[in-house]
Amino acid sequence: MEDKANYQQGDVSSRYGEEKETDYRSEYEKEHLRCADLAGRVADLEAKCDELTFKLNRIKENPLWKMSAPLRRCMHFIIRQKTRLKNCGSLRGVWAKIKYKDIERRARENYGTKSFPSEEESRHRREHVFPRMVKISILVPLYNTPEEFLREMIESVLNQTYVNWELCLADGSDENHTYVEKVVREYEAKVNGSCAALPAAFKMTGSGSLIRYRKLKRNEGISGNTNKCLEMATGEYIGLFDHDDILHPNVLYEYVKVINEKEADYIYCDETTFKSGDINKMLTMHFKPDYAIDNLRANNYICHFSVFARELLDGTELFRSRFDGSQDHDMILRLTDRAKHVVHVPKLLYYWRSHPDSVASNIEAKPYAIESARGAVADHLRRHGFEHFQITSTRAFETIFKIRYQIIGSPKISILIANKDHVPDLKRCVTSILEKSTYENFEILVIENNSVESETFAYYRELTENDKVKVVNYEGTFNYSSVNNFGAAEAAGEYLLLLNNDTQVITVNWMEEMLMYAQRKDVGAVGAKLYYGDKTIQHAGVVLGLGAHRTAGHSHYGQHRDNLGYMGRLCYAQNVSAVTGACLLVKKALFEEVGGLDESFVVSLNDVDFCLKLREKGYLNVFTPFAELYHFESMSRGLDDDGERAQRYNRESERFREKWKEVLAGGDPYYNPNFSLDRSDFALKI
Questions:
Q1: 513-to-407, 572, 589 alpha-carbon distances in Å
Q2: Residues of the chain with pLDDT under 50
Q3: d(CA 149, CA 351)
Q4: What residue ranges do the domains of the chain occupy?
Q5: Which InterPro entries match (predicted)?
Q6: Which helix (H) or strand (E) holds 64?
């Protein structure tokens, strides 16, 4: 029996093994068939591509196609102008755009060779001795660089008015571009052999060769070649420079100045793209904000010209090859995280050459850069503990991103709406919240203040039939700050959302779009994008010092809803000094921490003051364009442009200027000082 049992057990095991082997064989055969099927599909697609390529080439060779080229260019021009007109929104918008372009054209003259120092200024700066004469190693990876570009690049370094630098060149050029080495060797012999003729300030630095060159056995890509440059570098600071671009003669001098004055360990400047042959033929001038982490996550606005303390690299790489195409974005995110003093020099000191093969000309020249940029941002977010986020391209540009953070839990939001009569406005506002909002855990507190119309109280009774709505009474004369402070004390929510009664929700997930930022530990107030009834912009962030009173004003004011904004800034969430109280979300705990709204600002500037109190505590304020509402501004209260209201506004403006005198004197860190404070459209000073 025992033998029989063992035999049966063995028989069962044998059959099980055979069945398992049969299953594996079956799965293998299925996978093999799938692979064969896919291979067949790929072959079909390749055949179709070849066929389409043949047809396309035949069309392009057709004489009629060639003859129609001018007509097609004209048609594409008309389409582009139609889009631009749409973005302007109206004839008024068109005229404003024309004026803007005229200002830009006139201002452009001040940022090219006209801004270069005279011989006397250059000599004075070369002889200047800073307390810290740090050596800056400028890294330039070379690859098949056109000779003209190569010479202009090298000479822009030789013309620097700060003298303690070295140029480290790693050359990955192929055998068809041997002239690259010859040109560099020519400069190397000439420059390294003339150190004795250099100014005394340079000699005291004890520098050796000015130009260091290495011919690489093989091209290792942007990251690999730049890392080879780093191996040659002996400087305390590292500068990253592209092989076909140009430096302003004063850039190193300005950087060493802020190293000495501000202990800067990461520095960048403003930049421009230019047509290949002449830096005075500028295409786009980019005047940047000071360090702003939300801007940087969404858009590599720092870009050029990065110089940083070498010690920031301790224990980490310079460029990581898996992010080639956006290796600089990855590097900037990593090193600015480590830096203690990131300093922006608000001067146009870098000239980025635009030619057919450059990203400055066309991102399609390096399509892999888009995925690399997305990967770099994702890697950065994970290092900061974020999970389950989404990164998607925006309509501004493929590498300008919308970041959707995960909302943790479902905290209650208390929406505070101050109201006096004006039932149609209030009804439109509340109805839009209740009918459109996709976020569910909220309450609406209507803060009644001195209404007199029976229709108002009838509507209140109707409202309170909804469990989500409460009406609380504030007794006393109107004071926007006092009314909202009272409402905040009555609120049950973990978050407070200040909202004007003359607003109307557009974006159904408006609360989620704001909450994802307000939940962060480093964020104070979050503001939305608001439009007038004609779809022009009322609010897209507040700029300090903007406007006639030099207190604060709204950026991009009056521009059309579809406008991309300055350098795409209407298309991504960003740091700002302040946001409007017409739609402002903040943690209740933070609201209480800074003492709520300052009640000495009865109507105006209380929101800006509140945001500056948060900023003073070290919190960031964020504007997001992805939460959109209409704001039929001042319908209920009226404007502050005449009589007592104008006088009150003047008094509050004076108080604000006095309270925040030092902050205003320092300028808005998120608004470049090259911009005019008389216009809200980022027009340059003339």
A1: 9, 12, 20
A2: 1-17, 20, 196-197, 199-206, 361, 363, 365, 635-638
A3: 12
A4: 77-108, 119-393, 413-666
A5: Glyco_trans_2-like (IPR001173), Nucleotide-diphossugar_trans (IPR029044)
A6: helix 63-67
**Pairing of the two strands 574-576 and 620-631:** antiparallel
167 alpha-carbon distance from chain centroid:
30
Domain 413-666 has CATH 2.60.40.3080: no
Task: Give the Cα separation of 472 and 73 in Å (integer).
Answer: 63
Residue labelled with tokens 């420079």: 241
Please give the CATH topology (third level) of the domain spanning 119-393: Spore Coat Polysaccharide Biosynthesis Protein SpsA; Chain A (3.90.550)
Tokens of 501: 């009664």
DSSP state of 618: T
The gap from C-alpha 260 to its chain's centroid, in whole angstroms, comes to 28
119-393 matches 413-666 in fold: yes
- Pairing state of beta strands 542-544 and 620-631? unpaired
Structure confidence by residue, pLDDT tens digits, 426-474: 999 999 999 999 999 999 999 999 999 999 999 999 999 999 999 999 9
Residues in the chain: 686
Question: How far is 254 from 241, CA to CA, in rounded Å?
Answer: 16
Residue 124 DSSP code = H
d(CA 43, CA 55): 18
Q: What is the pLDDT of residue 580?
A: 98
For residue range 551-566, list pLDDT tens digits in order.
Answer: 999 999 999 999 999 9
Contacts of 195 (CB under 8 A, 6+ apart): 202, 203, 207, 210
Question: 219 with 172: CB under 8 angstroms?
Answer: yes
- Which pLDDT value is given to residue 508? 98
CA-only gyration radius of the chain, Å: 31
Tokens for 469, please give them: 């709505």
What is the DSSP code string of 391-452? Answer: EEE-SS-TTSEEEEPPPPS---EEEEEEESS-HHHHHHHHHHHHHH----SEEEEEEE-S--
Degrees to nearest 5, angle at CA 504 with 501 and 507: 140
Give dist(CA 460, CA 419) in Å, integer: 11
HSE, CB side, 13 Å, CA atoms: give it for residue 534.
10
